[in-house]
Design brief:
Length: 277
């Protein structure tokens, strides 16, 4: 079992280089086709009738600037990832906002890799709720890379957050290709309810993972602080390089209302987080 197609969001921000490197290394490990997608950040509906000649010249100039910016990122992608041993790759430019453009393209991929929103670095093509939108709307797992810190690899020592829920089950299933390549998986249960995990919390899920050839250890923890920060603290103690968890929440028009643990990790992540909803 492996991912066959991985999508990574590419742009000209300082953190894109590390995001692309991690995506390339992951594609090599999974023997996957890697797609780099750059977006102009302009809604596709502007171009819907194929005629934008009536737009103000200054706006046309700005649209051209955004297109050239995306084109440069796309042109640099293939040479960059081939340096890491990627044999099958492609890049493309989408005339759309990041939410809609990458959200649609992601449906034809097994995994989507993007960056965490950096409040100190505003982007002309990416809205602040971009990660939330993809997690809730693509139907694909989303690997989010923090905007701070250095990450040379991901998935060797993953922490899997398990609470018996549908979202956590979906995340674990979607992450199996990653977990099978791990040296050790830490299955973590926080404040386990008495009636949700059986006599030995996590034993059934550990057995399920073991049948997939995954080496797993189970631990239970009690905490009085929020789950998101508890997971980050445990991950630091275990020297984890990835957190796998279900993405909770629902969408209401363009407003994204996320569950507390999801929102906390999206805001404060210190290592990459694999979300699935």
């Amino acid at each position: 079992m492996s991912y066959k197609t991985i999508l990574v969001h590419i742009d000209d921000t300082p953190r894109a280089k590390q995001r692309i490197e991690l995506a390339a290394k992951l594609a090599v490990r999974q023997e996957a086709h890697l797609v780099g997608v750059a977006v102009t950040g302009v809604s596709r509906f502007i171009y819907q009738d194929g005629n934008i000649t009536g737009i103000d010249p200054s706006l046309l100039s700005h649209l051209e600037f955004l297109r050239e910016r995306a084109d440069r990122s796309a042109a640099e992608f293939a040479p960059s990832v081939r340096n890491f041993g990627v044999n099958s790759c492609a890049s493309e430019v989408t005339q759309d906002e990041a939410d809609g453009g990458i959200g649609l393209r992601a449906r034809y991929c097994d995994l989507v890799i993007i960056g965490q929103h950096d409040p100190e670095e505003l982007s002309p093509s990416v809205m602040s709720d971009f990660p939330e939108y993809l997690i809730l709307n693509t139907g694909r797992p989303v690997l989010v890379i923090p905007y701070a810190g250095e990450f040379t690899q991901v998935g060797r020592r993953p922490l899997v957050a398990w609470d018996g829920s549908r979202s956590a089950t979906r995340a674990i299933t979607d992450a199996i290709p990653l977990l099978q390549k791990a040296d050790l998986v830490q299955l973590v249960i926080i404040n386990p309810p008495r009636d949700a995990h059986g006599e030995q919390p996590g034993a059934d899920m550990a057995l399920y993972l073991a049948r997939h050839g995954i080496k797993v250890e189970v631990s239970t923890h009690t905490s009085k602080i929020d789950i998101g920060n508890t997971l980050l603290s445990i991950a630091a103690d275990l020297d984890s390089d990835l957190i796998v968890m279900g993405g909770y929440g629902h969408s209401r028009f363009r407003e994204m209302i996320m569950g507390g643990a999801t929102r906390s990790l999206l805001e404060h992540m210190t290592i990459p987080v694999f979300f699935s909803h």
